[in-house]
Amino acid sequence: MTLRQRLAVQYGLVVAVCLTLLAGLSHHEFVVEPRIRQQFNLPKASVAPWRNTRRWPSTSSSRSCSAAVGG
Length: 71
Hints:
Radius of gyration: 23 Å
Oligomer: single chain
Order of helices and strands: HH
Distance between the termini: 52 Å
Helix content: 55-70%
Largest sheet: none
Shape: flat
Structural class: mainly alpha
Number of helices: 2
């Protein structure tokens, strides 16, 4: 087996593992979690918890930080 063939097989296996993990995560998110919420009468999560947090500093604070660093 040539080096190119070995690398192709290895990268193919990495892709297969990643797709399997993604499928498992999707199954848990869209099948298992709603079933658990329904079983225990939990409310449906309507807003993501990170939506209420501050995202990025304002431009004036980032300018002052870059000026303090010397940029």
